[in-house]
Amino acid sequence: MINNSNAEAAKPKFFGRRKGRVIRKAKSFLLENFLPKIKLPANKIANIAKCFNSPYNRYCLEIGFGDGEHLAAIAATAADTGFIGVEVYKNGVANLLSLLTGIKEGNDCPADADVSISANRTDNVRIFDDDVRLLFASLPDSSFDKIYLLFPDPWPKKKHSGRRFINSDNLRELARLLKKGGILQIATDHQVYKRWVLEQMRENKDFVWLAKCSNDWRMPPADWHETKYQRKAIREGRKPVFFEYQRR
Ligand SMILES: C[S@@+](CC[C@H](N)C(=O)[O-])C[C@H]1O[C@@H](n2cnc3c(N)ncnc32)[C@H](O)[C@@H]1O
User: Fold this and answer.
1) Does a structural domain hold residue 230?
2) Ligand 1 pocket mutation pick from 89, 139, 236 by most atoms within 8 angstroms of CB
3) Nearest Cα residue to atom 19 of ligand 1
4) Residue nearest to ligand 1 atom 23, measured at CA
5) SS3 state at 176
6) Structural domains counted in the chain
7) Mind telling me the catalytic residues?
8) 163 and 129: one domain?
9) What distance separates the 2 farthest-apart alpha carbons in the chain?
10) Are residues 21 and 135 in the same domain?
């Protein structure tokens, strides 16, 4: 039997931020009253379709959705797709809830039971508000058509390379979770991380890089929605790249 201190020790270490500035009234309300309605169950998930009120044609996972702008935008344009978004950063989760419900700071909050997805949106987003590595074991094989990993923390110092999300253990899980032919989309604006992704993926037998010429990975895919970190990178003069890998 695992006692609590052993379970705690077995948890993977997370090095990023879990919380930022004080979360104000409307977003605190949403964390308390809306998140429980769209949060993934803590137990093992036998079939990804069961996480939603009705089945979808496709399923996608976004890891580290940040402020949730990309996830909210793609979910609004793909009503046939169920999305699972994962983020540790509480302020980011709260922001996604605000985008999904349309409830912003300054709005009157509805009664607890009334809070729901905006009338113009499909109820196709579910959230895991913790480290995605804690979710992996609960998810069945071949669950997703596409996995997004957009602007992961680069951890550019060599001594921190062990913290980078792209590594052989996580890639094994991502390969398991993707359907055959499914897509792993990785974007980064950091030179060190660009090289790191290329190196890690070159050695990986589960994925094939879909770039057809030396330039097409420098352009965002046609259906792309900008993220907060992408805008920051461009403002600061860095050039993002967009890797698309297919599950063999
Ligand atoms: C640099 S930010 C990018 C956010 C967003 N994708 C964007 O492009 O604006 C990386 C995000 O990944 C989240 N993150 C890092 N490791 C994670 C993990 N193991 N599980 C869930 N989220 C993670 C961080 O909390 C952070 O919000």
Assistant:
1) yes
2) 89
3) 131
4) 64
5) helix
6) 2
7) 153
8) no
9) 54
10) yes
Cross-strand bridge partners of residue 61: 84, 147
Of all protein residues, the one whose alpha carbon is nearest to atom 4 of ligand 1 is 66
Q: What one-character DSSP code corresponds to residue 39?
A: B
Domain of 114?
Answer: 17-42+54-65+74-139
Do 157 and 122 reside in the same domain of the chain? Answer: no
Based on the fold, state whether residues 22 and 135 are members of the same structural domain: yes
**Please, which pLDDT band fits residue 96 given cuts at 50, 70 and 90?**
very high
- Residue 230 alpha carbon, nearest atom of ligand 1: 8
135 and 21 share one domain: yes
Is residue 8 over pLDDT 80?
A: no
Residue 244: strand, helix, or coil: strand
**CA atoms of 55 and 32, how far apart (whole Å):** 26
Q: Are residues 135 and 151 in the same domain?
A: no
Exposed (0-12), middle (13-18) or buried (19+): which is 199, by Cβ within 10 Å?
exposed
Q: pLDDT tens-digit profile of 154-182?
A: 999 999 999 999 999 999 999 999 999 99
pLDDT band (50, 70, 90) for residue 9: low
In a domain, 94, yes or no: yes
pLDDT at 2 over 80: no
Pocket residue to mutate for ligand 1, from 226, 229, 231, 234, most atoms within 8 A of Cβ? 229
Does the structure show a pLDDT above 50 at 3? Answer: no
Residues with CB under 6 A from ligand 1: 16, 63-66, 86-89, 92, 131-133, 150-153, 165, 227-230
Q: Is residue 98 part of a domain?
A: yes
Task: Tell whether the model's pLDDT for residue 6 goes beyond 70.
Answer: no
Query: pTM for this one?
Result: 0.95
